Amino acid sequence: MQQWKGEVKPDTLVATVPVVVNDSSQVSFLALGDSYTIGQSVNAADRFPIQTAKLLNQEKIECTQPDIIAVSGWTTGNLLGFLAETDPPKPVYDIVTLLIGVNNQYQNRPKDEYGREFLLLLNRAIQYAGNRKNRVIVLSIPDYSVTPFASHSDTALIAKEIDEFNAVNRSIAQQAGVQYLNVTGFTRLAANDPSLIAADGLHPSGAEYTVWAQALVPVIKAALQ
Hints:
The chain has eight helices and five strands, in the order βααβαβααβαβαα. The protein is an alpha/beta fold.
């Protein structure tokens, strides 16, 4: 996988360009990310984008099967490298979510590098949403310090670094004018509720992803109005 090696100034946001609208009567959904988006260790039906689409359909908002571009272990650089070579299946989407960064933290990659690459990804997400910023939703990085996987690590340090990386993505999201959903607090409830952790002892369970989907639905409904 070819890594992206460019740079961008931290205050460089997507330029003002014409808005592109999806002509389909169905809501199209693109989810960008890593293992949390692809739903590592859960059934495909339990992935948060799939559960979100199902809930939207139950509320009479016809949503197509989400397109998911995500691989376990991907950093921001990996996702950028993939998108530099491969376009999403559709030219424009009604809803785009972006959740990535845990592997940057896990690999001890610099936060300033994360910020530069996350901004590039967010600009792409905005473009994929037809330059409708209100249709883009950034999800915060989950906190895996509460999982069995991290039990022999410095959990306080992991939680602190997750907060620091989330401060970066939240600031960039706010400056860009996109939606932001904090799911980190939801994941920390797993410290006292093992049902929220998948069988691999690291990733969220389907029940945890249900919480995310339920939180996403009102954000998406408001964006579509």
